[in-house]
Amino acid sequence: MEFQATKCEVVGKNDKNFIPKTDADQLRGIPHLRPKAETFAALLKLRSQINSCSHEFFGNSGCVHVDTPMISVNDCEGAGEAFVVKAQKDDDFFGYTDVFLPVSGQLHLESIVGSIPRVYTMGTAFRAEKSLSRQHMAEFRMLEAEFGFVNTVDELCDVVEDYLRFVAKRLSSESLRNEIEKAAEGYTSKDSKSLVEMCANVSRFPRLTYDEAIQVLAEKDVKVPRDGFKKAHELKLVEILDSPVFVTHFPADQKPFYMKREGDKAACFDLLAPFVGELAGGSLRENDANLLEERLPSEATANLDWYLELKRCGQPPSGGFGIGVERLIQACLRVVNIKDTVAFPRWFKHCKC
């Protein structure tokens, strides 16, 4: 089709003579102008596709979407990296000493599975981590799902693998080829296979216990410190097995209080993926309120009394997981810097727009 123009009208004057640059580092410093670059606009379109097919997958799986709160009295992970919320003129606005921006919506999802046994959320999470690395942001999105009447870690792993394959299939569609190629011009690396490529090449993700994973690394003369895997170990496992890898049953002392335990192990898993290492994490939830109360630090008990009460009110066995959306985008598209997976990134000492 050929067009012959008869009139040209300027609808938006460019006073600064701005020309979109393709250099990712430069564009990161001007996030309000960055979408003018075709390469970054392509990334935003692909992000939208991932969000869309996430809702499609969980909706088709019979899950109900829930909006979890953006202000909470609890720090789910207990890592001390939460942002404290205060009103400008009233430090005691909510009547609690500390109120936080959420690190996770998990505990709130748990409160719903007693009546709606399959729920999920795609919410914003915050972590006050003083990091300038390519892998961390202070504000990010979490896809979290919780299921009632789940009794094994394998059931959770099955859902995660099915979901990731669903996303990978969508990103492999011919209709998205132009966006994939355009994004690759400015933001991606070819240092390793993408999650999309690995999903196409393996019929089932390997599943190893923590102890088995330690042994696989030891056979390659890679030692793991007592406090657990670092990112280098996670990526090495993916490289050795040439596949995303589920690692299950970590030592209980490495994991949060809410995870069900099997002896000295937690009934949990991490999903390790190319390019990012840990992509997803989940567990069966401890249902015994007395055991939970014993594990809670004394300073956390007051803010989590509602959670303990929940477990004393006929709560079914449950389990769930969380997946970092930005890390998923990195793994699928091999985006070098996580700050390039979202329109307006926030990280330590950086909050523009």
From TrEMBL:
<dbReference type="GO" id="GO:0004816">
    <property type="term" value="F:asparagine-tRNA ligase activity"/>
</dbReference>
<keyword id="KW-0547">Nucleotide-binding</keyword>
<dbReference type="InterPro" id="IPR002312">
    <property type="entry name" value="Asp/Asn-tRNA-synth_IIb"/>
</dbReference>
<dbReference type="GO" id="GO:0005524">
    <property type="term" value="F:ATP binding"/>
</dbReference>
<dbReference type="GO" id="GO:0006421">
    <property type="term" value="P:asparaginyl-tRNA aminoacylation"/>
</dbReference>
<dbReference type="InterPro" id="IPR006195">
    <property type="entry name" value="aa-tRNA-synth_II"/>
</dbReference>
<keyword id="KW-0067">ATP-binding</keyword>
<keyword id="KW-0648">Protein biosynthesis</keyword>
<feature type="domain" description="Aminoacyl-transfer RNA synthetases class-II family profile">
    <location>
        <begin position="44"/>
        <end position="345"/>
    </location>
</feature>
<dbReference type="GO" id="GO:0005739">
    <property type="term" value="C:mitochondrion"/>
</dbReference>
<dbReference type="InterPro" id="IPR004364">
    <property type="entry name" value="Aa-tRNA-synt_II"/>
</dbReference>
<keyword id="KW-0030">Aminoacyl-tRNA synthetase</keyword>
<protein>
    <recommendedName>
        <fullName>Aminoacyl-transfer RNA synthetases class-II family profile domain-containing protein</fullName>
    </recommendedName>
</protein>
<dbReference type="InterPro" id="IPR045864">
    <property type="entry name" value="aa-tRNA-synth_II/BPL/LPL"/>
</dbReference>
<keyword id="KW-0436">Ligase</keyword>
<dbReference type="Pfam" id="PF00152">
    <property type="entry name" value="tRNA-synt_2"/>
</dbReference>
